[in-house]
């Protein structure tokens, strides 16, 4: 990673799974890191030592603007990301995910930030007939959360076009890795399976388990964020898939972890996701580096599963 002469960056949601990994990597790269998190989903102990922590809501635009003063980049990861929670609480999650993103963009503009890197989601695609998923496909979100994240992309593009604020949106595909919360919103299948195995129980598979996801390691997602900040080819509201480009079924995940399984009732969800990551290669010089087999083997060691 390129060493930096103490450039300041802000990470919203930096007490969460992905945000804390990103904050750690930015510190290692020589950045001065400010973390903004209201701890509604994140945990204070996840924030890396060396980062300055501001416990506040992203909807407090005036306070955000002060935190962002002098910042080069803002990485906006703060969100209420559970799909089911967004279905049950559409107003609360819209405030966090849509209003919060507008607030971050306005604060970034007022603070003269050089670029905002927005954490978007492959949930914007919803159900699609054609695979792999490409950024030029019409969005088809199937939940309030998917809609929120898609609206965030549109706001980023509008702020670039109307206000001249450089932005780029990264659509994450099923992020997993060390420190993922088994009760959290990311990598639910892998993290929950690991917890179930660690507790000695069976892994519960919804439906037949043939549904597939493009599982992408958190270290690859972190690297994509840093490349998106540094790339001279983005900043006009581009939307870029950040996915491994290979999908695996839930049954395959259970096989890699190993152990007993139990099938439960299916739930309403897209059957498959698979990223076309060629645009990320073209604009960011990004390619995934951690294979699913390697990533799960690492997690089994973390959870002491043999």
Radius of gyration: 18 Å
Order of helices and strands: EHEEHEHHEHEEHEEEHEEHEHH
Number of helices: 10
How many strand segments? 13
**What is the beta-strand fraction?**
15-25%
- Looking at the overall shape, the CATH architecture of the largest domain is 3-Layer(aba) Sandwich
The main β sheet shows up as: 7 strands, parallel
Give the arrangement of secondary structure elements.
Elements: E1 8-12, H1 17-28, E2 32-36, E3 52-54, H2 61-68, E4 71-76, H3 83-88, H4 90-110, E5 115-121, H5 144-163, E6 167-172, E7 175-176, H6 188-198, E8 203-206, E9 212-213, E10 216-217, H7 218-230, E11 236-242, E12 248-249, H8 250-257, E13 261-264, H9 278-284, H10 292-302
Parallel strand pairs: 1-2, 1-4, 2-3, 4-5, 5-6, 6-11, 7-10, 8-13
Antiparallel strand pairs: 9-12
Helix pairs in contact: 1-7, 2-4, 4-5, 6-8
